[in-house]
Amino acid sequence: MNNSITIKQYTDIPLLKSAVNELNTDIKNNPGLKYEIVGYSICKGETFCTTVSGILVRWEGTPFEKKDVKEVE
Fold this sequence. Notes:
Layout: E1 5-11, H1 19-29, E2 35-45, E3 50-60
Antiparallel strand pairs: 1-3, 2-3
């Protein structure tokens, strides 16, 4: 059982990755972990007219570690 607390920041990189999509992937891949969104920000860049969002999430456990589980017959 994993009782650790992890704070993870998800940030947009324009044209490369989406903070929301990355968070949704972690939620989908870690259904047993509890999480709470503790912060959210949106910044608009005037130079390139892009919007960048950031999401701060508190996880009970470590969502980005993948473990291979093999079933024994």
